[in-house]
């Protein structure tokens, strides 16, 4: 993985078979979030030019904003459009880009053409990110842009994320990780900067709602997209619709679960999700938890 600053030798990246990165720190970081942000801007300003892989979540949005501040027109944020990218995410991203005048392009990716991606084994994210970074590599070559970066943060290294392996193979920079920014710090810095993404709920790709071993296809992703739009229309903020064949297993954030359990709302959820194409609807009593399908691995 290309490093932003060779003067940061204390970070060492080790990719395990499970594709979880473990970072060894020779000494713990005592820097405040503001000091880390200052280091981030210093590191970014040293780059001749940069493409930021922008999904629109809190981390990549903060990185895109920081790159825009540090590099101006030498920074280009790029968002991949495919069936796994929700309509809602695209709408939210468009509003963010307009608000901050960030130089940006949409590109198409074709991970769905890859049988290994569609097979949806535990390494699905690897094939998705490999396709993304291959497309960005070509775009960087076409536009004579020197470097590509993505928004992985220090907390992400504790989770199962096969996409990190693809990032390493493509020598993609991890600017937030290099300065050891954690998720709560990124949210707080985003709040201070006036970014509307500061408190945006985590929003993984639609394929993350499909259990491993179940084929990912455009029809299933569209069904999930419509179902989650229906929940959003009902007023819910943090949730997932996990697809189990014709059954929707709905995970609602604990602080919203009591609303979902109210008889009238439960009936509305059932009706709305059946209307978009599910035959059965269940409410997961454990509530929303990130990466719940990883338990099957």
Account of the protein in words:
This protein is of the alpha/beta class and 297 residues long. It folds into two domains: 11-23 and 34-199, HUPs (Rossmann fold), CATH 3.40.50.620; 206-296, Alpha-Beta Plaits. The chain contains eleven helices and nine strands. It has helices at residues 33-45, 58-71, 87-100, 115-119, 124-143, 163-169, 175-178, 183-192, 218-233, 254-261, 263-276, and strands at 11-15, 21-25, 50-53, 75-81, 104-108, 148-149, 239-244, 247-252, 280-283. Strands 5-4-3-6 form a four-stranded parallel β-sheet, sandwiched between helices. Helix 1 (33-45) crosses helix 2 (58-71) and helix 5 packs parallel to helix 6. It is globular.
Helix-strand topology string? EEHEHEHEHHEHHHHEEHHE
Structural class: alpha/beta
Please work out how many helical segments DSSP would assign. Answer: 11
- CATH architecture label of the largest domain: 3-Layer(aba) Sandwich
- The general outline is globular
Strand residue percentage: 5-15%
Query: In order across it, which strands form the biggest sheet?
Result: 5-4-3-6
Indicate the percent of residues in helices: 40-55%
> How many structural units, i.e. domains?
2
Largest sheet, strands/sense/barrel? 4 strands, parallel
- The CATH topology of the largest domain is Rossmann fold
Number of strands: 9
